[in-house]
């Protein structure tokens, strides 16, 4: 169609969608050449000048879109003509928005005269305040487009007031004042920011007019500050509070002539009662003003700024996070801290802060407190036990002074902390000058902290160290590193150590200890070069941390002891894991040796021995070199303990070495001494360990883990030894096979023979205890670590428990390595077929198949030995998302089978699917594509009634999935499906909750009650029929023998009582 | 308000479930044996109840304290003493009633619960104690829909007044 007709048709279109599509077509056609554009304009001519407002708007809009595309191809006259046309249309209420877009597109190439005319029309004819939002936004877009370019900005400023710049400012203010829509406020912020340059370009008179009207201009921006905006739920515009705040901030800082109003206005919002969000905005605004306007403008306001900052810093809100979704959300104090480091007044502000009255008061209060004699501490009436103090006049004000000292110290500490956090240089000044002076006054020395002002000094010093640490961590990469604590290192270590050891008197000793440990922890965390300056301080800090772990205090509760040890251990871990080599050396040569002295066969189970093991494990986990030393120590002492038949001590050490999460042997060690110690221990265990007694499980655990840490030569030798003793000590052979590493060279055919023999025995024996599990573990380990070694799965029936275990371990191994081989698929297929009892008529085999499938994604707690060769303690690892891949592949097959069958066949398929779901997150298991929820009630009822046998892990999985779905409807499975099964589910939950015959563990009862609590959120029509039953069960469970169950029961009971009283 | 600016105390973190420490934590994690009802367990039930007038829990205001709770599991007795923030607190009865209702809803029926004002901490101590421990009066109070609504608000962590 000819563009002439097309344009005409488009402009006349009644459908908005068609309108948009046609407009785009016409615009792209116009972009081809000038003639097409002319024809399009001619086609719409009568409509552009017609009386139909809607058509006129559409035609203007099409012309604006076309102009935007082809403005670069038009000649100057054409552009001026279009610009003039759009300028003329700005007064037309119907087509104003479209005209503004067209004018913005053409202004870039139009003459200054044409732009002036557009500007005049925008600020006199358009009257944006009376337009709808989209048109207002277009007008602001035009204003910003004019302001961005120097040439058009000059013309805009001239045109707005028709030569009178004062009038121009007034018209600009009146055009956009009172804007409410956040989209427009964003554009307004930009316009206000660009405006001063436009007036500046027009010469001194224009700038003078701008400055004369600065208060009025600032008022427009000021009306939005502090920003109180919360995007509505489901907001499609997606403008955040932070975006708006930044736009307003730009507007407020547009010109230094705003300073007299802007600074005091922003500081008004640095008011703690307004909350951390507005405080942070205010601090950011003041900082932005300083950065934009510079030192000259800010100088006269620095005193005012500091006074406001001080009031803000001393309030708790200063350290609270602003409630903002923005990832850059921070605390007001963090923003204010950056002001101390700023160019515009950093020096003056930090000087004001460090000489502030609060700091001077703290110094005076601590001096007075320190100089008090002991006898002056308490009023005699208080000592006598009379009711309170005499009321004054007795001259004793000890407690008052102490309280005052603490209060002023707390106030000053926040100031010091904020300044110290600014730059390393300021941190040095805070600690080495100001804090030094105060500690001198408090009579704290590096030899003694007996001063009465010690506690207040601690309160004062902690934030200063914390701030310095923050600052040094931010500047960890700078070239020149100087200790921020310098000569004060020894004194500060002494102060915090005294607190950590409970040597400082205070009302609450536990609090002082925690404060002391926190301080020492911070000192250990400084990046290398910034921390403690002297060797004595480093040695003292690690030594005192160790003392804090091993010492005991009178009247300290067990909880407090536990917390104290945990904090002290964390501090030592920080000392060896933050890259400070000198501090690490102090720990490895001092602390570790002292701890090693506490670990002997006779001492392992003592309180100090237990604490030493705990500390060594934690430090070893954080530092590789220390781990080798600790491993050697533990291996040697374990061997000694076994020689002395002290199995309890050996068990504790084995637990410390073989724990999956932080065990000392769970990662390979390169230290030769440690490797030799491991080899010696394995040799010893193969010779001496009795594998039939109660220690057997620990024996095989430590052999497997120690074997995994031997060097390649030792591994080959020990493997050959283990193959030789396969007949006499099959458990030890299995443990050695579990510890074999893939890079070791050994006799493969021998291994295959040994495995075959072990499997034969495991599948023909009726004993399916630890030995069968270990054989399965060895098979799984070989399948996982040596994929090239052929291993034939036992072909016997799946009703044989040994066969099930071996299948399960090998399945798990293959899933862990993401095996997709046909052999694996054949095994899976065989298991799925065995689930169909209508074909096999063998429920035992079906149950065995379900269990084996379940093992593919993880083992139960009682199958711990089965996992020996597949756990971190034997250096086996799982590929990322392996379980989920297996679940998503197999679960749909199982659920489809369950859906297509009835009776037991359906139950076994559902059971297998539930077992598989135990290895993946609830969000995956309950995903709608699997539709597992409808089958959970059958499984749960069968597990409750015992028809599927006693299976704790599956019951736990089913309960967790039910609970997760009931608590979170978004997890999948429609409400109708949940409601359909709700009654039977709730009844099953009640049955589990009241079970007392030992079949349901505490954990299961607790989870059932949690699910019962979650079920109270269902529809009233669903809960009503079972309300009495649920209440009875919850009430009965409120008297459960276990506290954890009672806690969940109380929660569930309250929720159901609320339902019953409706 | 009887006390427009009450003293607010630091509350301790919950040490329940996996976070339980020390011997109590070990006892809780054992499958066998019976965990006796103790003062801390009762305190865990009442610490979150909200003050009727202030947006703080009874624990934060120091109205209930673990040390003021006595439990005799074998004799099925629980005694809770609470301390109003001011001696003339007109909300003492409502606070006591909230504590009683929470314990009625969370403890087994075998327990006889006494909720009392700590001696010497309230001007109408006797009268309030009599009200709180009179079964008939408590039952009658809970029949009052308006009062029950206020109690439920306190129990759900909101201010009732």
Short description:
The complex is a heterodimer of chains A (1062) and B (161). Chain A has 1062 residues and is an all-alpha fold.
Helix tally of chain A equals 52
CATH topology of chain B: the name is: GMP Synthetase, Chain A, domain 3
Oligomer: heterodimer
CATH topology value of one domain in chain A:
Leucine-rich Repeat Variant
Mean pLDDT of chain A: 88
Shape of chain B: globular
Number of domains of chain B: 1
Compute the number of helices of chain B.
6
Query: What is the CATH architecture descriptor of one domain in chain A?
Result: Alpha Horseshoe
Number of strands of chain B: 3
Question: What structural category characterises the helix and strand content of chain B?
Answer: alpha+beta
Strand portion of chain A: under 5%
Mean pLDDT of chain B: 88
Biggest interface and its residues per chain? A-B, 22 and 24 residues
Low-confidence stretches of chain B: none
How big is the Rg of chain B?
16 Å
Protein name (chain B): MIP18 family-like domain-containing protein
Family (chain B): Belongs to the MIP18 family.
Pfam family, one (chain B): FeS_assembly_P
InterPro entries (chain B): FSCA_dom_sf, MIP18, MIP18-like
Q: What can you see in these coordinates?
A:
The complex is a heterodimer of chains A (1062) and B (161). The longest helix of chain A is centred in the N-terminal third of the chain and has 23 residues, at 276-298. The radius of gyration of chain A is 39 Å and the shape is globular. Chain A is an all-alpha fold. Among the domains of chain A are: 1-71, no CATH class; 747-881, no CATH class; 921-1062, Leucine-rich Repeat Variant (Alpha Horseshoe). Chain A has 52 helices and no strands. Helices cover 37% and strands 13% of the residues of chain B. Chain B has one domain: GMP Synthetase, Chain A, domain 3 (2-Layer Sandwich). In chain B, strand 2 (77-82), helix 3 (92-106) and strand 3 form a beta-alpha-beta unit. Chain B has 161 residues and is α+β, with helices and mostly antiparallel strands. Chain B contains six helices and three strands, in the order ααββαβααα. In chain B, strands 1-2-3 form a three-stranded mixed β-sheet. Chain B starts with 21 loop residues before the first helix and ends in a 6-residue tail after the last helix. In chain B, helix 3 packs parallel to helix 4 and helix 3 (92-106) crosses helix 6. The radius of gyration of chain B is 16 Å and the shape is globular. Classes of the chains: A mainly alpha (1062), B alpha+beta (161). Chain A binds chain B through residues 557-559, 561-563, 1001-1002, 1035, 1038-1039, 1041-1044, 1046-1047, 1050, 1053-1054, 1057-1058, and chain B through 15-17, 21-24, 27-28, 31, 33-35, 41, 44-45, 105-110, 152, 155.
